[in-house]
Design a protein that fits this description.
The complex is a heterodimer. Chain A is an alpha+beta fold. In chain A, 25% of the residues lie in helices and 47% in strands. Chain B has one domain: Immunoglobulin-like. The radius of gyration of chain B is 14 Å and the shape is elongated. Chain B has 1 helix and 6 strands, in the order αββββββ.
Chain lengths: 393, 89
């Protein structure tokens, strides 16, 4: 059992050693003469001793041992200094981990990523710019933000928005917006107006709700011709101005065409890929290359970004960027006629649907031809639609 | 000079330990022996220890002997002490 004296001896710093030599007593005498206080000297055999000595005298004792033709082997070091060094050695990784954890927690208080959703006509860039004007951007300390104020400021800066909110998830700011629905044009029934033909056609039906119909079924009309006049009989003045209302159904004819080159240019492969690396730290970019990163002609720039984040958990303002410039190689070859024709027909059909706008397509025929290195598809269609369009007087 | 001092101490009846460098041996039960003012250790094992104390040579015999502390002037031995012999050098 260790005595308080042993504890004090250990705390001061001692080394437990084994001494091997023919005359260990000589070593002990020399150490005593040199002022080295020895302790716990236990003989193990005639030529071996186990002893402890102050740690600070270990090197001196080893020199003495060599002079005494002995060997002093340190077995164990103890003491406050040794303990502190050992603790420090173990503590450094723990402290590093702790520091990383604290850094991570601290970084969560800043916005490092902004996600925008719910916008259709307003671009992400416009929302980001407005947010930036409101003081929200990458690297913003989010606990300083007041959600209500931010929303109000955002709506003032972007009048196209009806509603907006900013939710913070860790280091990610999620901006959800709802766009304002435009007001429909109000019909002013007191304003005098005629209904005129939007396009040429043969009238198949007239339904005049207000005003005087000037055409009847079977009439041929040209664009801009008045179909229902904004006039009504009056008992006092003969006629009076009114707002014409009604519909005029007509048989209309469409002729459209679309063309594509008979030869198509396709990318046959890539050549000479070159990688450049950069580091993104917050808003700063550190390039590990010289010169500019402007892509040469006929070259694709492919950026790959590895962000330091775990989705939904944390995000750090650190990202590694690989920028690859890949040279394009082109090849010209004849286009597949069937596929090209089908594609053009689909395009024309879509255009026709947009032109008819609610009308009915009664008949449509497609014709395909090739001329001057181009594949041309023509559409002829007969439709039935309301051709009346309001025109103010 | 030392002989004169020894004679004077003896004649005057003064304690012998007043003389500087006089070896002193303290036996505490049969567990510990403290030797002060020793010159050097001559031999040491778990059964016996021999120390040079100038005019005397001390020999301690026992079992499981171990040196608790050893410095320039003092030697503290621990173990089961069986005999302590003092021989003139």
């Amino acid at each position: 059992m260790k005595t308080p004296y042993d504890w004090l001896w250990s705390a001061a710093g001692s080394a437990e050693c084994r001494l091997i030599g023919v005359l260990p007593a000589g070593f002990l005498n020399r150490c005593a003469a040199a002022g080295i206080r020895l302790g716990d000297v236990e003989p193990e055999s005639g030529t071996e001793l186990r002893l402890s000595l102050p740690l600070r005298s270990l090197h001196k004792a080893q020199r003495i041992a060599r002079r005494s033709q002995c060997e002093l082997i340190p077995l164990r070091r103890s003491g406050a200094g040794v303990l502190a060094r050992r603790m420090l050695r173990r503590a450094v990784p723990v402290l590093c981990l702790l520091a990383a954890f604290v850094l991570l927690c601290w970084s969560r208080l800043y916005i490092w990523e902004i996600g925008i959703s719910g916008n259709k006509t307003v671009s992400d860039g416009a929302v980001r710019a407005a947010l930036s004007d409101c003081g929200v951007g990458v690297g913003t300390f989010w606990p300083d933000l007041v959600s209500d104020n931010l929303r109000s400021e955002l709506l003032v800066r972007l009048p196209q928005l009806a509603w907006a909110t900013v939710n913070i998830h860790g280091s990610r700011a999620e901006v959800i917006v709802r766009e304002r629905i435009p007001k429909p044009a109000l019909l002013d029934e007191d304003e005098p107006a005629d209904l005129v033909a939007e396009r040429a056609g043969f009238v198949t039906g007239v339904r005049a709700l207000n005003g005087t119909a000037l055409v009847r079924a079977g009439s041929a009309v040209l664009p801009g011709e008045v179909l229902i006049a904004g006039k009504a009989d009056s008992a006092f003045s003969g006629s009076r101005e009114t707002h014409a209302l009604g519909s005029v159904t007509a048989e209309t004819y469409y002729e459209m065409s679309a063309a594509v080159p008979a030869l198509e240019t396709l990318r046959s492969g890539s050549d000479g890929a070159r990688s450049r690396w950069a580091l993104l730290i917050g808003k700063k970019r550190v390039n590990f290359y010289r010169n500019s990163s402007i892509c040469p002609q006929d070259c694709d720039k492919i950026n790959t970004i590895w962000e330091c984040k775990i989705e939904g958990l944390f995000s750090l303002p650190l990202a590694l960027v690989r920028e690859r410039n890949v040279q394009r190689v082109w090849e010209e070859r004849p286009r597949d006629r069937t596929a090209a024709r089908r594609e053009l027909e689909q395009q024309l059909h879509a255009r026709l649907l947009a032109a008819v706008d609610g009308g009915e397509i009664e008949q449509e025929t497609y014709a395909c031809s090739e001329s001057e290195g181009r594949l041309i598809v023509c559409l002829r269609a007969r439709c039935s639609e309301d051709i009346a369009k309001e025109r103010k007087k | 000079m030392r002989e004169i001092m020894e004679t004077m101490t003896e004649k005057l009846g003064l304690p012998a330990e007043l003389l500087d460098g006089t070896p002193r041996l303290t036996l505490i039960g049969s567990r510990q022996v403290r030797i002060e003012n020793h010159r050097c250790l001559l031999s040491f094992s778990a059964e016996a220890l021999e120390a040079d104390c100038g005019k005397q040579r001390l020999r301690v015999r026992g079992e499981g002997l171990r040196i608790v502390s050893l410095d320039r002037s003092e030697l503290l031995i621990d173990g089961t002490i069986l005999t302590v012999e003092v021989d003139p050098a």
